[in-house]
Design brief:
This protein is α/β, with parallel strands linked by helices and 220 residues long. 49% of the residues lie in helices and 17% in strands. Helix 1 (14-25) packs across helix 9, helix 2 packs across helix 4 (90-99) and helix 7 (147-160) packs across helix 8. The structure holds cytidine-5'-monophosphate.
Length: 220
Amino acid sequence: MIAIAIDGPSGAGKSSIARSLAGQMGYVYIDTGALYRAIGLYALEHGVEPTDREKVPALLPQITLELRHRQDGQHVYLNGRDVSEEIRTPAVSMAASGVSAIPEVRAFLLELQQGIAAKQNVIMDGRDIGTVVLPGAQVKIFLTASSEERARRRYQELLAKGKDVAYEQVLADVIERDRNDSTRAIAPLRPAPDAVTVDTTGNDFEQSVSQLRSVIEEKL
Ligand code: C5P
């Protein structure tokens, strides 16, 4: 099986670029952030603080997660319920970042992610795919962009969905999530030693896709 790992901070364009590449190459695109988001959502729904290191692990035995792929992309099922839309709110983004620093949560998701990559050729995006989940991936890319540019893209996305948000709030959230993700003790966001770093600041979507495609073709 071939695995392409794409890691990087939120809003660097990982998911849209990875989805497009997977479509071109006939690989399955796996968005691992959706799994952390689903656990974050479950914690919120059960009145548990997402950073609670005792209560969150206690919820895990009640959780079954499944990814299914349809024409319109990946769907995530939380205990049989399709939560793909519900997990895309700013509150759930922050909750996902909270639960993701808990070792039991990462261990719970590790096997699931590795099992998916063992069955099919994947382009998997996340924060620790190249470093922890698939250290043997044939291609590892660390995709990044300036925080302002990432916040601007996220803001446009939320506006397009009709969400009422302020740019300053989105930027503050991006900075806070970056800090959480890069400073946590377990599986912090950082490039794998053998990853190729690609900075998409100032690129349009097509430029980023073709830049990544060249990196992949060079490695495979
Ligand atoms: O990629 P996305 O923004 O959907 O991820 C939501 C959160 O899940 C991230 O802020 C990060 O804290 C966490 N995450 C992670 N490891 C991954 C994917 C996501 O810690 N592989």
